């Protein structure tokens, strides 16, 4: 009896000491190229656990907010409501669908705490569990909001995060928060917001940032940065954000074999490992990146 117990316990002890490997998912940005296929097609691949619909790229400072989904549809003529059923379809497959606010091109800022409060009210009523006569994505209730803030004011995103998270208590459905900071710490736009500890998913952009990305066969800078993110930034899960193809970013593309052999085995030991984020669905379709890595994520 005693012998059997010890032989069962030893492997357990071994794994505790050496570090367990954690399973993760793939998050994808969808919405910025009309030739990337529909939302349902993305979800039908079975490879994504999170989809960020990109972007709501005009908000704040009293502006009337606007969404931009490139060639997919035109919010001004209400043709994006066709994605309502597709959002529900993705959610029925247990895929979390978030609205990403910000992006590289747009007009957005948060001018004050009051402005942040107003934007949070707008997001709740227009895309989450609230009600509005104008819902560009129809009556589908998104799982949360992703912050991809790259311009405008660096202020008040912590307040926006608090106001949005407060709706988690009011509605029946939890409001998830995602963020896509650049890898240098602290992120200029999102550092203060991340310090709130309210973000469930933080998909760090390990690209377009030479001090903390992969380059020429060398994984050192990326792995050092990953260690800093997972040990110093409070967050639910941290994802390794990567370009899905060389053309998807200025620099930082990681060949799939390097990712699966030299990076994933190391970062999967982190308790906070959530998986890999890819920019974007369009480039993933072109390059087949998620298909190459899914078995190792
Ligand atoms: C916030 O919303 C209120 C109510 O609609 C409005 O009176 C106020 O001007 C708004 N504040 C800002 C900063 O946009
Ligand atoms: C990889 O990069 C690190 C950090 O820049 C550097 O110290 C190291 O020498 C590089 N390793 C190789 C094999 O080039």
UniProtKB/TrEMBL annotation:
Residues 1-23 form the signal peptide. It is found in: Secreted, Extracellular space. It is an enzyme of class 3 (hydrolase). It comes from the Eukaryota. GO terms for molecular function: endochitinase activity. Pfam families: Glyco_hydro_18 (PF00704). Its main location: secreted. InterPro entries: Cts1-like, GH, Glyco_hydro18_cat, Glyco_hydro_18_chit_AS, Glycosyl_Hydrlase18_Chitinase. Residues 24-297 form the GH18 domain. The keyword Transferase does not apply. Keywords: Carbohydrate metabolism, Chitin degradation, Disulfide bond, Glycosidase, Hydrolase, Polysaccharide degradation, Secreted, Signal. GO terms for cellular component: extracellular region. The keyword Signal applies. GO terms for biological process: chitin catabolic process; polysaccharide catabolic process. Belongs to the glycosyl hydrolase 18 family. Chitinase class II subfamily. This is Acidic endochitinase. It comes from Vigna unguiculata.
